[in-house]
Structure formats: structure tokens, C-alpha cells
Amino acid sequence: MMSTENPVHYPLPVLEHTLSPNEINELFSMLQSSQPSIHSTSSSETNRSLYSLEERKRRRMISNRESARRSRWRKKKHLENLTSEANRLNNENRELKNRLCMIAHDCHLVQRDSNRLLCESIYLQQKLTGLNQMLASTAMQLPQLS
After folding, report:
1. Beta-carbon neighbour count of residue 49 at 10 Å?
2. What pLDDT, on a 0 to 100 scale, did the predictor assign at position 145?
3. Rounded alpha-carbon distances, angstroms, from residue 123 to 109, 113, 120, 134, 135
4. Residue 12 has pLDDT above 60, yes or no
5. Which helix (H) or strand (E) holds 31?
6. From residue 56, how far is each of 42, 59, 64, 71 by CA, in Å?
7. Which ranges of the chain does DSSP label H, i.e. alpha helix?
């Protein structure tokens, strides 16, 4: 039973030109020659594929060894850098501790001088007060003498 529906329209154009039998045969031969034969039983092809597999394994092993060597070298360099940085920081820490010790010593000297000057100031104020009292008492006695 045939229906009389509208024809289907494709977004891509349909080729009007068809391939000739010779063109089809050429395409098939090209496809067959480009695909590797999986079921090959020829001993030379088997040897080649085994050799190829062994060669790939050998190359992969060499590549892995080289990668491991580079990784060890990077790790060694990283450790050297960390060691160098630790030494630099230890030296800087020692220098900062020495500076702190010197500054603390200087601070102690300044504080000692400050305390000495404060005591001297108190002593001199007391002496001045005593002298002022003596002067005041002498001044009180002066008018009485006349």
C-alpha cells in the first residue's frame, strides 16, 4: 500500500551523480589497502608485529627510565633549593637574634641611665628645696637684723 505523502526534504543536497562500478571498485581497493590486516597468518607479518610490539615495549621502558631520571633530578634540585633556603633563613634568624640582643642591651643601658638621671633629679630637687628653705629663713632673719 503506497501512501501519497509529501516527499521528505533533507537539509543536505542529494547527489545526482552516482558512482560508476569502476569508481566503486577503486574505493573498495583503497579502503582494503589502508586497513591493517588483523587476521594475517603470514610469519613475516607476525614477526614484524612481534618486533613492533617488542620495540614499543623497549622504547616505553627507555622513556620511563628517562622520565624517572628527570624526576629524580628535579627532586634533587628541589631538595637543594629547600636546603639552601633553610640555611639562608637560619642565618637571617641568627642575625636578627643578634640584633635583638644588642638592642635589648642598649635598651637596658638607656633604662639604667634614665633611672640614674631620675634619682639624680629627685636628689637635686630635694637639695634645691632645702636651699630654698634656708634662703627663705635667712631672708626672714634679714629684716629682723636691721
Report:
1. 13
2. 56
3. 21, 15, 5, 16, 18
4. no
5. helix 21-34
6. 21, 5, 12, 22
7. 21-34, 43-145
State whether residue 19 is helix, strand or coil. Answer: coil
24 neighbors 32 (Cβ within 8 angstroms): no
The residue with cell 569502476 is: 22
56-67 residue pLDDT tens: 899 999 999 999
CB atoms within 10 A of CB 56: 10
DSSP state of 16: S
Q: Within its chain, how far is the Cα of 106 from the centroid?
A: 40
Can you give the pLDDT at residue 87?
98
Residue 143, C-alpha cell as written in the block: 629684716
Distance CA 67, CA 74 (A): 10
**10: three-class secondary structure by DSSP:** coil
